[in-house]
Amino acid sequence: MSLTNEIVQQTLSQQFTPKVENFHIEHDMLAFEVKKEASFEVIQFLKENSGMNFNFLTDVCGIHYPDYAKDRQFCVVYHLHNWYDNVRIRIKVFLPADNPEVESIVPLFAGANWQERETYDFYGIVFKNHPQLKRILNMDEMKSFPMRKEFPLEDQGRTDKDDRFFGRTGPNC
Amino acid sequence: MSNSTNIKQVAPPPGYAGEGFFATKLSEVVGLARANSMWPLPFATSCCGIEYMATMAATYDIGRFGSERMSFSPRQADMLLVMGTIAKKMAPILRQVYEQMAEPKWVVAVGACASSGGVFDTYSVLQGIDKVIPVDVYVPGCPPRPEQILDGILELQEIVKNESVRRRSSEEYKDLLNSYNIK
After folding, report:
1. Which of A110, A126, B24, B150 has its CA 20 to 30 A from that of A99?
2. Which chain B residues contact residue A159 at CB under 8 A?
3. Rounded mean pLDDT of B26-47?
4. Burial of B38 by CB count in 10 Å (0-12 exposed, 13-18 middle, 19+ buried)?
5. Do A158 and B89 lie within an 8 Å CB cutoff?
6. Shortest CA distance from A151: residue in chain B
7. By the CB < 8 Å criterion, does B95 face chain A?
């Protein structure tokens, strides 16, 4: 019998409630939230349990929700893919604004290495036990985390534009 | 063989000509020699580089202006052509390439991105290469046509022709390099 969204939801609920919550289907894809303390063990279960078999990590990325409550302003999104039954799921882990820290999943998926570095680079989300957590795309001297909403996207060194017509609000590095 | 009679040759510098001799200033001769055999170093990072490829190829043929030989080693180049967006992460590399070039050296910023950052008014992009190295000629355009790039090179040739042979050891030049923190 092939794996379905319902089976995944049932298995996870039995195994991990209350650390997993808010199951819903978006675009035929099962999505749910995991408490940040449990992110590693849930993903490990999904990968290693013979019934689940989510053997491929498609994506790791960050989101910044500045309008959310203080304890869930940052979010790390994992996309997992089961190649045997072709089932995809999406996991969201919400993190507090003052200390966005989550366990690295590099021990499970080596491919997460650069994706977690990228997420750190742009959002400042710290992945604990990551083997080499440093900036990957931006220059090392940069002080801001540019995809956070509080930092302006425009470069502050620009001299040939009239600031009345182009947003330039404050320093970003 | 071309039958064209419309052949323009490099005019001799101002000087005194007589039967079997020609006298002029050394700086004029040096300028003439330098200007008409510029060795370009193409530092191409995006679409302006494609336009430059057309500039090198048969239709536009940069070789007509004495820049036949592309030098992909900074040591044997005297005209740095920066073509394309320079990310801030790329800036130290561009600077290192410039520092590796032997004097005399000139820089052409080709296109909007190299000149000012262009449309990339963003945290990751250098807002014009003149933030890290001195620039002699700016070529506008997004991207500039090969004619414009050639025009920029011709402008640079005028600068080179008229440059004093002592400019590179002058105080002004040292101040210029110091203002960029280049030793």
Report:
1. A110
2. 127
3. 92
4. buried
5. no
6. B123
7. no
Say if the Cβ atoms of A160 and B116 lie within 8 Å. yes
Q: How far apart are the first and last CA of chain A?
A: 55
With beta carbons under 8 A apart, name residues in chain B contacting A157: 127, 131
Relative orientation angle of helices B146-161 and B47-56, to the nearest 10 degrees:
70
> A84 in the Ramachandran plot: left (φ > 0), alpha (ψ -120 to 50) or beta?
alpha
ipTM (interface pTM): 0.76
pLDDT digits (tens, 9 = 90+) for A118-158: 999 999 999 999 999 999 999 888 888 999 998 888 787 77
Cα A35 versus chain centre, distance: 13
Asked if the model's pLDDT at residue A170 lies above 60, the reply is no
Mean pLDDT throughout B123-141?
A: 93
Q: Which CATH superfamily is domain A5-111 in?
A: NADH:ubiquinone oxidoreductase Nqo5 subunit (3.30.460.80)
Which of A140, A50, B50, A81 lies closest to A120 in space, CA to CA?
Answer: A140
Whether residues B89 and A173 touch (CB distance < 8 A) is answered with no
Model confidence at A88, in pLDDT bands (50, 70, 90)?
A: very high
pLDDT of A110 reads 94
Task: Confirm or reject contact between B89 and chain A (CB < 8 A).
Answer: yes
- Identify all chain A residues contacting B124, using CB atoms and an 8 Å cutoff: 137-139, 146
Q: Which of A60-69, B1-10, B167-176 has the highest mean pLDDT?
A: A60-69
Q: Which CATH number fits domain B40-179: 2.130.10.10, 2.40.50.140, 1.10.10.10, 3.40.50.12280?
A: 3.40.50.12280
For position A20, what pLDDT does the model report? 94
* Min Cα–Cα distance to chain B from A151, Å: 9
pLDDT at B1 over 80: no
Give ∠ CA B139-B141-B142 in degrees, rounded to 5.
Answer: 135
